[in-house]
Design a protein that fits this description.
It is a single chain. By secondary structure, the chain is mostly helical. It is built from ten helices and no strands. 30% of the residues are buried.
Length: 155
């Protein structure tokens, strides 16, 4: 199942959001038992696809499902890794309900993203800024995908 989450992520990166979402849904249908780690990653990838397809309610549900499964063990790595791709969903789902945990997550997100930028920026023609907070970055990601203010605030 974890391999399918990687395949779906790769499909997502090609901007084939509906297809990637279908891969995730197929993995869920094939699961004969609960595998927490792959299911958390699959829900995150599904949410990434849903938010790009402007399926806000479904994306929030996917993140909440992943969050509730990860929460008892404090398994935050998928949310840290996918923060930018989740485009504000962590802020919608976690920031207000669990502000202390969100503060910890924000620190980890900054640490992860700075390390990622050190690898990414020298290899790409465009650089990713390190001047934004995780919340500001999420808002910027939605804005650059042509979300209207009304769509943003609905989510």
């Amino acid at each position: 199942m974890f391999a399918i989450s990687l395949l779906a992520h790769e499909t997502y990166l090609r901007q084939e959001y509906a297809r990637a979402k279908g891969l995730v849904q197929g993995a869920f249908l094939m699961a004969d038992t609960t595998y927490p780690i792959p299911i958390i990653y699959l829900n995150c990838v599904q949410a990434m696809c849903q938010i790009n397809l402007k399926e806000q309610k479904e994306a929030i549900h996917s993140v909440n499902s992943a969050w509730e499964m990860a929460r008892p063990d404090r398994f935050w790595e998928p949310f840290i890794e996918y923060h930018g791709l989740l485009q504000g969903l962590l802020e919608v789902c976690v920031r207000k309900k669990e502000p202390e945990i969100y503060k910890q997550l924000a620190g980890e997100i900054i640490s992860f993203s700075r390390s990622w930028m050190k690898i990414h920026n020298p290899k790409m023609q465009k650089t990713v800024t390190d001047l934004l907070s995780p919340l500001e970055f999420s808002i910027a990601m939605l804005a650059c995908r042509n979300w209207t203010n009304q769509e943003f605030w609905k989510s």
